[in-house]
Design brief:
423 residues, mainly alpha
Length: 423
C-alpha cells in the first residue's frame, strides 16, 4: 500500500492525469507482486459494469441540451423579476437562479459557465466589479451537485448502494441552506459597498418571466415525482430528462437547432469519457487498497483518535476539504467511499447524510486553489486574475463552511425529507 500511494503521489506531482496516475500506480504494484497484468483490465471492466452508471451520460446530455436551449437566460430572467428590486438584487439573482439551474443540469461546471456568460457582463454594467461577478458565479455553481439531479449523487449512490431517490431528495434542504448563506453574504456586502437595486417589483413581469421559464422549472419536478411513484429507475429518469430537454429545446422554445445536436453529443461523449475513465481507473486502485485492508486501517486509526461520531465527522470534513484542494472531485469520491464505508457503518453514521456531507466538501474543493476547477472556469470566461478572484471569493467560502457545519451536525436537515416523501 505504501508503494501504491507513493507512486500515485509522485505521478500526480509530475503532472500525470489522475486516471493514468491511478491505473499506473496500481499496475506497478500488481506487476511487482507477480500478479498477471490482465487483472488490471479485468478490474477496470468490472468497475464499469454497472447499470446505474448509464444515468451519468444521460444526465450530462440533458444538462447540455437545456444549456444549449438558452434555458439559463430564461431562468435568470425569472429570478431577476423575483429579487432584482432589492439592494444587490442582481447579485442575488445569480444565487437564486442557480437554485433552479441546479435542478436541471446537475453539474457545477455547466452551471458556473452559464452564470458567468449570462450575468457577469450585466453585473459589470450595473457597477459591480468583474471579479465579484466571477466569484459569485463560481460560488453559485456549487449548488449544481447538491440540488437534484446530480451526477455526483449518481456515482455516490452506486458506490454506497443506497437509494438514489432518497439521496436526491436529501440534497434539497442542504442546497437551499447553502444558497441562503450566500444570499446573506451578498446582503451584507450590498450594504457595505452600496450595491444598487435593479428595477422595481412587478407582479405582471414576474408572471411573464414565470411563463417563459415554466418548462425549465418543471424538469426537477418530473424527476422527483418519477422517483416517488417508483415508475422509473435512475437510468430511466435520466433518459426521460434527456428526451424532455430535447423536446423543449427543439419544439417548445425552438432555440435548439438540429445542427447543434452533433456538437452536443460530442461534448456529452467527451465529458462522459472523462468521468468513466476515472471510475474505471480507480477500480484496480481500490482493489489493491481493499486487499491491503486500508478500510480496516482507517477505522482503527480514526477510532484511536476519537470514538465519537461527531469527532469522526469533524476529522473527515477536514480531510476532505484538504483533499479537495489537490485532487479532482470524482477521483476523491471513487477512491475514498469504499475505504470509508466500514468506518461510517461502525459509527452508525447514516450513508445518505454522509453523502450530502461528502458532496458539499467536494464542491468546496472546487473553489480552492491549486485544483479549483470552478476558479479556472470563471477565470477563462470572465478574464479575471486568480488574485482578484480570491479577494472576492473568501466571504462566500466562510458562508459555505458555516453551511457545511450545520449540514454535518444537524442530520435532520438531510434526513427529514426522504421519509416524508416516501423514500
Amino acid at each position: 500500500m505504501t508503494l501504491l500511494l507513493s507512486a500515485f503521489a509522485v505521478l500526480l506531482v509530475v503532472g500525470t492525469p489522475i486516471a493514468i496516475a491511478m491505473i499506473g500506480s496500481a499496475g506497478l504494484v500488481i506487476w511487482l507482486e507477480g500478479i498477471p497484468l490482465t487483472i488490471v483490465a479485468q478490474r477496470v471492466f468490472a468497475g464499469l459494469q454497472s447499470f446505474p452508471l448509464l444515468a451519468v451520460p444521460l444526465f450530462i446530455l440533458a444538462g447540455s441540451l437545456m444549456n444549449e436551449s438558452g434555458i439559463s437566460e430564461r431562468l435568470f430572467g425569472f429570478t431577476r423579476a423575483m429579487v432584482g428590486h432589492i439592494r444587490g438584487g442582481l447579485a442575488q439573482t445569480a444565487i437564486v437562479g442557480n437554485i433552479f439551474l441546479a435542478g436541471i443540469s446537475g453539474s457545477s461546471i455547466a452551471d458556473t459557465a452559464a452564470t458567468t456568460r449570462v450575468l457577469v457582463p450585466q453585473l459589470e454594467k450595473h457597477g459591480y466589479k468583474r471579479a465579484f461577478g466571477a466569484a459569485l458565479s463560481a460560488c453559485g455553481g456549487t449548488l449544481g451537485p447538491i440540488i437534484p439531479p446530480s451526477i455526483l449523487m449518481v456515482l455516490y449512490a452506486w458506490q454506497a448502494n443506497i437509494s438514489l431517490g432518497a439521496l436526491f431528495v436529501a440534497g434539497i434542504l442542504p442546497g437551499l441552506l447553502m444558497a441562503g448563506c450566500m444570499v446573506f453574504v451578498i446582503a451584507i456586502l450590498a450594504r457595505l459597498r452600496g450595491y444598487p437595486t435593479s428595477g422595481v417589483f412587478s407582479l405582471s413581469e414576474l408572471w411573464l418571466q414565470f411563463r417563459r421559464a415554466i418548462w425549465a422549472l418543471l424538469m426537477p419536478v418530473i424527476i422527483i415525482v418519477g422517483f416517488r411513484l417508483g415508475a422509473v429507475t435512475a437510468t430511466e429518469i435520466a433518459a426521460i430528462a434527456a428526451l424532455y430537454s430535447a423536446l423543449v429545446g427543439l419544439f417548445i422554445y425552438r432555440s435548439l437547432s438540429w445542427r447543434r445536436l452533433p456538437h452536443i453529443l460530442t461534448v456529452t461523449a467527451r465529458e462522459t469519457g472523462v468521468i468513466l475513465i476515472i471510475a474505471g481507473a480507480a477500480s484496480p486502485f481500490s482493489w489493491i487498497l481493499g486487499i491491503e485492508q486500508a478500510p480496516q486501517l482507517v477505522v482503527a486509526g480514526v477510532t484511536a483518535i476519537t470514538s465519537s461520531a461527531w469527532g469522526v465527522l469533524l476529522i473527515l470534513n477536514i480531510a476532505l476539504l484538504v483533499a479537495g484542494m489537490f485532487m479532482e472531485t470524482i477521483a476523491i469520491m471513487i477512491i475514498l467511499v469504499p475505504i470509508l464505508m466500514p468506518l461510517l457503518q461502525s459509527m452508525g453514521i447514516d450513508l445518505v447524510h454522509f453523502g450530502i456531507i461528502l458532496l458539499v466538501n467536494l464542491v468546496l474543493g472546487q473553489l480552492t486553489p491549486p485544483v479549483g476547477v470552478l476558479l479556472f472556469v470563471v477565470m477563462t470566461i470572465a478574464k479575471v486574475s486568480m488574485v482578484d478572484l480570491l479577494k472576492e471569493i473568501w466571504p462566500f467560502l466562510i458562508g459555505l463552511v458555516v453551511a457545511l457545519a450545520i449540514i454535518t451536525y444537524v442530520p435532520a436537515l438531510s434526513l427529514w425529507l426522504p421519509p416524508l416523501l416516501g423514500f
